[in-house]
Amino acid sequence: MTLQAIKYDGTQLSILDQLQLPHNLEYIQIRSAEEGWHAIKEMKVRGAPAIAIVAALSLAVELKSLMTHGKLSTSAEEVQLLIREKLHYLTTSRPTAVNLSDAARKLEAHVSTEAKKSDSTGNSVASAFMDAAAKMLTDDLTDNQNIGKYGADWLIQNTAGTGQQEINVLTHCNTGSLATSGYGTALGVIRALHSKKVLGRAYCTETRPYNQGSRLTAFELVHDNIPSTLITDSMAAALLSSKERRVSAIVVGADRVAANGDTANKIGTYGLAVLARHHGLKFLVAAPRTTIDLQTKSGEDIIIEERPAAEVTRIKGAREGYEGNDSIATIRVAAPGIDVWNPAFDVTPSALIDGIITEVGVVERGADGSFDFERIFQN
Ligand code: MRU
């Protein structure tokens, strides 16, 4: 059983508080869109698919509660307006991952169709929203399992030339069960390789400054008994050039893939793509189609979130010998007064990407060097 970041039963929503991982496994309840917004902003939940799902479900539980307490308007139009306003508010929590605004746009359209029906009521509009939000949770899991399957098959075919029996993969940030409704995207590919018994070892980077790799991915890999090794970000070049460790590919997730294939993902991804090209290794992006943003022409148009300086100047961890909440401490690691730049993401140019693994197959660059996503949006 993989870790479950999001628990939803139609009435209640709780999320695994990722700020406390890997030290404490504590679920916190989310009762409204406002609580959902704060959980996303403060990164209690993070990862492109997970933030979209939690945003939608946070509004679903708020609507359910209004309904139960007889406080929901009977007017379809008023409920539609309420949903629209709350969705717009939720999209202001984090700007880079497109999954959140994509989900808001689709949910808004779905609700609008329901509200237009001649017999629609406040309750029917809210129910249409809640059903669509719940479906996001189940669809994401299926999508990830398919991403895993396509990615593993692609790697088996395309790294065979290295003459290796087992495939060693490097990944960055956290793209697993904690960043999705389950299984994961890039980590899903690693999981699928492991199930097929062809994974040698998964290497994960620490992923400074927020340490999604050492805190979250390492935790998931150990939890799921996947052979794995943690490195600091600065060790990636040495790892890729190591003849003993023989890494064949880098697989990462994405927060937004532009129409030309330029990909925004966790800061440090671009550097890894440059390293992969230098070493002649495959560099793959694993992401559901909801992460591909055809409205954004290229990486230049992607808004990169900048986060507080304290995430760079301080580090959070557990004090040895202490238990539970008491163990968690934050310490300063940088000289007081230093100026800090903390972009949370960078953009990898499409030319450095060998393939984009989606739930309907792997998109490779065509003969002209460009990605053509039209095909995968036709079904
Ligand atoms: O800042 P985060 O932790 O939300 O960033 C997450 C990433 O960059 C992931 O690689 C991306 O969202 C894909 S998660 C399946």
Automatic annotation (TrEMBL):
Claim: Chaperone is one of the keywords in the record: no
Record-level GO cellular component terms: cytoplasm; nucleus
Keywords noted in UniProt: Amino-acid biosynthesis, Cytoplasm, Isomerase, Methionine biosynthesis, Nucleus
Family stated for the protein in its record: Belongs to the eIF-2B alpha/beta/delta subunits family. MtnA subfamily.
Membrane-spanning ranges: none
Lineage: Eukaryota, Fungi, Dikarya, Ascomycota, Pezizomycotina
Record's protein name: Methylthioribose-1-phosphate isomerase
Matches recorded under InterPro entries: IF-2B-related, IF-M1Pi, IF_2B-like_C, Initiation_fac_2B_a/b/d, M1Pi_N, NagB/RpiA_transferase-like
Species of the source: Byssochlamys spectabilis
Subcellular localization(s) per the UniProt record: Cytoplasm; Nucleus
HAMAP family recorded: Salvage_MtnA (MF_01678)
Pathway: Amino-acid biosynthesis; L-methionine biosynthesis via salvage pathway; L-methionine from S-methyl-5-thio-alpha-D-ribose 1-phosphate: step 1/6
Main location: cytoplasm
SUPFAM superfamilies attached to this UniProt entry: NagB/RpiA/CoA transferase-like
Reaction(s) this enzyme catalyzes, per UniProt: 5-(methylsulfanyl)-alpha-D-ribose 1-phosphate = 5-(methylsulfanyl)-D-ribulose 1-phosphate
